Amino acid sequence: MSAIYTVGVAGSTQHTRICAEALRTSGQFEILWVVTPPPQPIGRKQILTKNPLQLWAEEHHFPVVFVEGKLRPELQDQLEPQPDFLLVVDFGYLVPQWLLAWPQIAPLNIHPSLLPRWRGSSPGQFVMLYGEKTSAVTIMIMGEGLDTGPLLWQEEFAVDSNWTQTEYYQHSFELAARALPQVMQEVAAGTRLPTPQPAESPTPIAKRFKKDDGFISWKTLAATAGLPETHNPEVQDHQTSQLLVEVQQNTHHSWTEVIANAVQGLSPWPGVWTYLPTTKGLKRMKVLSVHKLGDKISLEQVQIEGQQPALWNEVKTLYANQ
What we know:
Layout: E1 5-11, H1 14-26, E2 29-36, E3 40-42, E4 47-49, H2 52-59, E5 64-66, E6 85-89, H3 97-100, E7 106-111, H4 123-129, E8 134-141, E9 151-158, H5 165-189, H6 218-224, H7 233-236, H8 242-251, H9 255-265, E10 272-278, E11 281-293, E12 296-304, E13 310-311, H10 312-315
Parallel strand pairs: 1-2, 1-6, 2-5, 6-7
Antiparallel strand pairs: 3-4, 7-8, 8-9, 10-11, 11-12, 12-13
Helix pairs in contact: 1-5, 4-9
């Protein structure tokens, strides 16, 4: 009979829950405790809401340790007993050296990219922004560097052309969750040895997004969609985000490709958005879906500020130059 190993879990999302549940149901691991942020105010009414990992831990009666701000050494007193493994998935906090050293066997992380490609907090979005057709999910041993620790397991997969980041991440973590119990058993038994990563990554850091990163100037969007030019001087003051400009320059893709990739890869957040010049001034507009037509795009679904999503053909009469 296989040995039962103990695990502490750090995270917050449904992806953490999927991976922790795979360990629980395998019968090979005992979850000792869960570290997660406390309930956060959500929505317009700012209702305090528990995250998916906390809900899962409470359902199965696992102790929950809340963390806010930095992970300070005094928190260690609450992380007893000392686990064999620490599993960190979608945690959102910098894991300090004292916590990396706390598990008796190893601290593990699941990173949804083909490391050393796309180190950082948003690998899936960058895979899609750069139009990559294949990617991978990685199980690794955590180190102090940003996603630079030794690799234990990787599985490559094709990136579906219809995915948004939601489907990308769901697929990645489901693949990892299926492999995770066996990988951890082999690490504990010494039959799976880590492979060091190259020091340098061939890609930029997949940084955390800001809302403005999804901004595309109306001038660029209209030209790519073959729409009439506007002479509204306010339009000239709003420039496409530096991030999207860098993607276009680094990939040498046309703006048609960049915009189409961004609409999917940045959905649902931060999304691609612009300022639409209308007869009543500039209106903020989200671009929810587009269709590529040769070297142009066709706007499909959009959302004007304060309104429900609608087809572009239903709202384009607002455009001052239509």
